[in-house]
Amino acid sequence: MKTKFVGAFSQSITLIGALLVSSNVIAEPAPASPSVEPPAGYKWEMVEALTDNFNGNTLDSNKWYDYHPVWSGRYPSRFKKGNAFVQDGVLFLRSTSQIDTPLADPESRVWVDAAAVVSKEKLAEPGWYYETSMKASDTAMSSSFWFRIGKYSEIDVIEHIGRATKGNVDATKSFLYEANTHVYGEQSGASIPESYKMATRGRDEFHRYGLWWKDANNLWFYHNGVKVFEIQPSVAFKEKLHMIFDTETLASQWVGYPTIESLKDDSRNAMKVDWVKTWKLVPGEPEPPVSAEHSIPGKIEAEQFSNQSGIQVEPTLDSGGGDNIGYIENGDVAEYKVNVAQAGKYKLSFRVASATNGGNLVIKTNSSTLASLPVPGTGAWQNWQTIEQEVTLAKGVQTMSLDFTGGSGYLFNLNWLSAELLESNTGTAYKTHVIPGLIQAEDYDNGGEGVGYSDSNTSNLGGQYRNDGVDIGDAADIGGGQFVGWVEAGEWLQYTISNITQGNYDVDLRLAAAGTSDKSVSLNIDGNALGNVNFKATDGWQNWQTQTLKNVYISGESNQQLRVHMETGALNLNWIEFVPVSNVSVDQCNNTQQCRNEFGSQATDCLNSQSATSICMCGTSQCL
């Protein structure tokens, strides 16, 4: 995320390093290698000319144009030099409006200034793997990562509309990872699209989009490191291409035009790119992984991370020798793959040193925050001290993340961390729960604090239903019953699920909160993250709304433990319901009749283009 000045032990140089970018969700660290296993006898090697962490505040002019050198953009937008820039370790591609009031005919003139960044060298070729971490703009502009400027071929790794304004298209389109291949010029062939429904919107958080251009006839596409679809182009793609990031007014007849308001709002109008990586295959054996899976209880050397962002490894003067991680700044992250032998309460110990005022260690598992531990100044970068924090861990394999926060400049060093079991989890189900099905929030597991739940106080502030520390009140919601409320950030509830039918589910949470501030709840099963539900407060403690975590996969093993973590406080939870995802998904139909043949006579209001092929975005009962 940022530039570092390296020295053996001297960390006196202060950098402009705090992550000041206005992003709702921090991007995950860049992988050390592709998710694709190399063929036997080969290993992956970085291609520096098409790799960039976008450190600092200046775009590397040796690698990139900050405009498109041969194309002015898609009407009624045009690329504007200066709308693409690097700020605080992130590449921004901003779309802005030239006008203050809507035009009677939006196609009558250019009125949107878009952005483009294009590689200076035409290097991309078959056999290489390309991946970027990006967050779409919150507008009806496309946020795109693609390859072109050859003689005939185009590969759109991702073309994503952040917020469509046409009808109800946004309800579906904002979750779609869409890719395409096109053929131009000296060759002829059909365009081939593919899509994948993501669990969260492209505008809500950073997503990783990857392409393995496996060979001239096979393109494999990846989302967050997982292969999601393939495309076989209609002609062999053999030529070298330029790498491109851009924003465009794309297919307005299907998605609508961006609003002037969204284009004038700098918190919404920029596509953001955290990094882009390119690897090629070279003869040799693959490098061993940075670290193996760590057992808990046990000790972990800090440099044995599975992933990281911003930190560096250096020799340590602490007892036992070896290395420590250092040059840690606000926003840096270290991740460790761990296997917890028993669920229960653990004492985590951290070996730290700091010549400044220190900072904070935010401890997470599978993106759920467990605790925030202050790290003190110790007087010197190699003057070591052990600090401790009690947390409750679920059983099983999971990712433990250490997020480092604090002021500007370097914060502290970390040599090792260890976990000691204090109390095993012997909780039992309070009621029988099954998936699919509905779980009442107040029916969390038996076992008390640190076993069936974690609550910041020992009494039931609502005084209803149970006598534990969880705060329960009467719900003025449909169906009545009780709710869990008076929550604080970091609290959690656990539910043992006796029977689970394997499959994909939409997870509905019935929530309420006073005011209009941002709220967040995360879920995991046996330590495997399902995702976060992020929502605006509902302007009332009993003003109930259903928020949905879309399309999550759950294995069919029995007696798994669901955990609901309160990432923010001041919210109420009534129930959680797991609803099987319908087998009917978004489809593309050639015309209205085909749409109705596929989805029934109620499929109406299809979106037809002026081209030879009409596109109909169909749902289960109607076009969107």
From TrEMBL:
This enzyme's EC code(s): 3.2.1.8
Span of the signal peptide: 1-27
Family affiliation: Belongs to the glycosyl hydrolase 16 family.
GO-annotated molecular function: carbohydrate binding; endo-1,4-beta-xylanase activity
Top-level taxon of the source organism: Bacteria
Protein name: Endo-1,4-beta-xylanase A
Origin species: Agarivorans albus MKT 106
PANTHER family in UniProt: GALACTOSE-BINDING DOMAIN-LIKE SUPERFAMILY PROTEIN, SECRETED GLYCOSYL HYDROLASE
